[in-house]
Write a structure and sequence with these properties.
The chain is 29% helix and 19% strand. It is α/β, with parallel strands linked by helices. The strands form seven sheets. Strands 6-5-18-17-16-7 form a six-stranded mixed sheet, covered by helices on one side. A six-stranded mixed β-barrel has the order 23-27-24-26-25-28. A hairpin with a 2-residue loop joins strand 25 and strand 26. Bound molecules: ligand MGD (2 copies), iron/sulfur cluster and molybdenum atom. Molybdenum atom binds next to loops. Keywords: Iron, Iron-sulfur, Metal-binding, Oxidoreductase. It is an enzyme of class 1 (oxidoreductase).
């Protein structure tokens, strides 16, 4: 808890948005109203600063379009017409529909669909205690594949964990590679540590991003070719004898075999694959060879490709070849999630499932809703997600959600594109209105979020919503009625919860990386049907045209904030950046209205002609609401295809034709 003075108090909170930084904040409460919010000064990563989006969080909390009451659809699906109803009526209708569906089709006909809108462990989707409710009903499992699954799987093959370097150690690096990551937009707090190091910085990105602009050097390879580049850089290092023979002998498995793989990727061959000049590859290889330690920041963007899992698996081998994994300030940082030892199984309680059930993939909403049979999906619970805006194959998602026989419940803060397809909408609390904690995936801090104010209208927390629904359905399992306080103590067992609560944040002890040895040869990968050795898997879109990258927007967080007037104004209209050569070949000039299309769908944009993108590549951003952009966003063009590992998504592995409108 914070400290009180007169009529105002400060209360610790934490940002639960899907951002690596997991910021800690203080809410100033006066007379029961949140009047201020600022980044926690004492938090070593937040350092008193939030970001351009969350600086407006209280404006969001009080926004005119915030959903404050339960609602029932009155128009057709997609129309977005609702009437206000009482909680009692809403719960009654949901209980009745669910009961009927379970009886007729079995529990598996229910798809609980938690998204990434809230990463809290109690109210959000990391720990997802409301899975207990769905387990009792025998509902289908939900595989969270949309964001980071492929890269995490790839890193686990090499390192035994996806949790890599402590990002604070970037302050001790000699060379920093910002590889397929745009932290100045997507999680800016690591930047200060990089600046503190004084290291030479190299951005590797097909687009000259905000981050690339600020680096000492920028390499723009073709998308999806990073594993080849990594192998080429290792080739340069090994042929110059700069590999760390001691580390390789002591800490790795399969060096002899992997060395042969590296030798196949000569700089010349890699130049052909990546579209980079051979001298630039050799130069960077030599720079890595002579700079100890070298740190790689790679994040999720780079693995949204057919070979995205393999990319991370292979890139993590580079600091093993140089021995940098053993030096403070060396290695690779992707996500620190693997370092936390939270008792999620006790929260989710899969032991409550009456029998084994099928798993539905988060990225395959179209297939799940339109093709799954035995049983078909008859009820969908969307919780902190916006699949119409966020998922691939937007047209199929909309077609699936339009099914008249599908009962859809959406728990939300705002009237998103997905809300428009709900049968029942339930109003949810926002971060200052419930108690929870986050475990940052871009640093090693747990951050506490104490309830600071009462929610507006009739908003309820996720857990309270499901406690009431369980009661309404007459479910007797005691685990469904545990209090948030009990849930918190369960998942945080082993951590000093009282200290976390009074100090606002707590740094955890990381696990060793690698967990045991670096597995160049991975029996685990082989058993899963993959190449036993790290290698290169090429991009997979069989289409033609430019490769379209739709990365993180600066002023939205995924589709969150997508209706905030000021952030929408700053984001501007839908734009697509095209290289001057590609623009000329298509009769497109700066400002030309264009149609961006492929076999899956199309969306409208305004052309921006710039060498910020390399030839062959186009760039736009994710996060727009379809209802504000003529009914379709970039996600209308993206395939519901799995990447190589763990069913990851392929958002940036997307070929499109661009023509003037
Ligand atoms: N402001 C803001 N912050 C965010 C988000 C947001 O929407 N807005 N989203 C949050 C979420 S959910 C996530 S997962 C993270 C994502 O954040 P990042 O991991 O940074 O991912 P992206 O923005 O998708 O892509 C990062 C960079 O990778 C480049 N890139 C794409 N494909 C390739 C490739 O094949 N090779 C290389 N070398 N580069 C490539 C893109 O051009 C882009 O500049 O950010 C989080 N933070
Ligand atoms: N084209 C393209 N599309 C992408 C990506 C890309 O790179 N390119 N990236 C993908 C990635 S990395 C991700 S993670 C996904 C994200 O996709 P989603 O998981 O759909 O995330 P959001 O779009 O942020 O939508 C989250 C919703 O949750 C709501 N919400 C937030 N907190 C709470 C809460 O506490 N309770 C309730 N009930 N609701 C809450 C917000 O209001 C918001 O509408 O998008 C993916 N989509
Ligand atoms: S979105 Fe990221 S940078 Fe912004 S406040 Fe939340 S955690 Fe911090
Ligand atoms: Mo994400």
């Amino acid at each position: 808890m914070g400290w009180g003075y007169d009529r105002w108090v400060k209360v610790f909170g934490a940002c639960a948005l899907d951002c690596p930084d997991g910021c800690s904040w203080e809410v100033t409460v006066e007379g029961g109203v949140a009047v201020g919010m600022r980044g926690a000064k004492a938090h070593p990563v937040t350092r008193g600063a939030l970001c351009v989006k969350v600086n407006r969080y209280l404006e969001q909390v009080n926004a005119a379009d915030r959903i404050r009451y339960p609602m029932r659809r009155v128009g057709r699906k997609g129309e977005g017409r609702f009437e206000r109803i009482e909680w009692d009526e809403a719960l009654g209708e949901i209980a009745e529909r669910l009961g009927g569906i379970v009886e007729e089709y079995g529990g598996e006909a229910i798809w609980p669909f938690p998204g990434t809108g809230n990463l809290g462990y109690i109210q959000g989707t990391e720990g997802f205690p409301v899975r207990r409710f769905f387990n009792v009903l025998g509902a289908s499992l939900h595989d969270p594949t949309i964001c980071s699954a492929a890269g995490s799987a790839g890193l686990k093959y090499t390192l035994g964990t996806a949790g890599g370097m402590d990002p604070e150690d970037f302050a001790h690096s000699g060379l920093v590679l910002l590889w397929g990551t745009n932290p100045l937009t997507s999680g800016h707090h690591i930047w200060k540590f990089i600046q503190d190091s004084g290291a030479y910085t190299v951005a590797i990105d097909p687009v000259r991003s905000r981050t690339a602009e600020r680096c000492d050097e920028h390499l723009a390879p073709l998308p999806g070719t990073d594993a080849a580049l990594a192998l080429g850089l290792m080739n340069v290092i090994v042929t110059r004898g700069a590999h760390d023979a001691g580390y390789l002998a002591e800490k790795t498995v399969g060096w002899y075999e992997f060395r042969s793989r590296i030798m196949e990727f000569t700089p010349d061959r890699v130049a052909g694959i990546t579209g980079l000049p051979v001298e630039r590859i050799v130069e960077l290889g030599e720079r890595i060879a002579r700079t100890r330690p070298t740190a790689i920041r790679a994040s999720q963007g780079i693995q949204r490709h057919a070979g995205g899992g393999m990319a991370l698996r292979t890139m993590a081998c580079l600091p093993a070849v140089t021995g940098d994994w053993a030096i403070r300030g060396g290695g690779l940082h992707y996500s620190t999630s693997g370092h936390y030892q939270l008792d999620v199984p006790s929260l989710a309680r899969f032991d409550l499932l009456p029998n084994p059930v099928r798993t539905l993939s988060q990225t395959r909403v179209g297939a799940g809703l339109l093709e799954a049979s035995d049983p078909p999906v008859k009820a969908l619970f969307v919780i902190a997600a916006n699949p119409v805006g966020s998922n691939p194959e937007q047209r199929a998602v909309i077609e699936g959600l339009s099914r008249e026989d599908l009962f859809t419940v959406v728990l939300e803060h705002f009237p998103t594109d997905t809300v428009d397809y709900a049968d029942i909408v339930l109003p949810s609390t926002m971060q200052p209105e419930h108690t929870d904690f986050v475990a940052a995936y871009g640093n090693l801090y747990l951050a506490w979020n104490e309830k600071a104010v009462e929610p507006p209208g009739e908003c309820l927390s996720t857990t309270e919503t499901f406690r009431r629904l369980a009661r309404r359905m007459g479910l007797t399992e005691p685990a469904l009625y545990e209090s948030d306080e009990d849930l918190l103590r369960t998942v945080l067992r082993g951590y000093d919860i009282d200290r976390l609560r009074t100090e606002g944040f707590l740094k955890i002890e990381p696990r060793p990386v690698p967990i045991e040895k670096i597995n160049f040869i991975s029996p685990l990968a082989e058993r899963a049907g993959h190449d036993p050795l790290p290698g290169y898997t090429p991009p997979g879109d069989p289409g033609t045209g430019l490769i379209l990258i739709s990365a993180a927007p600066h002023y939205f967080l995924n589709t969150t904030f997508g209706s905030n007037p000021e952030l929408r104004r700053r984001t501007g209209e839908s734009r697509i950046t095209i290289h001057p050569d590609d623009a000329a070949a298509r009769d497109i000039a700066e400002g030309t209205p264009v149609l961006v299309a492929n076999a899956r769908g199309s969306f409208e944009a305004i052309a921006e002609v710039s060498d910020r993108v390399r030839p062959g590549v186009a760039a736009t951003t994710k996060g727009r609401w379809a209802k504000f952009t003529n009914g379709a966003t970039v996600n209308a063009t993206i395939a519901e295809r799995d990447s190589d590992f763990a069913g990851g998504a392929v958002f940036h592995d997307n070929r499109v034709e661009i023509t003037p409108r």
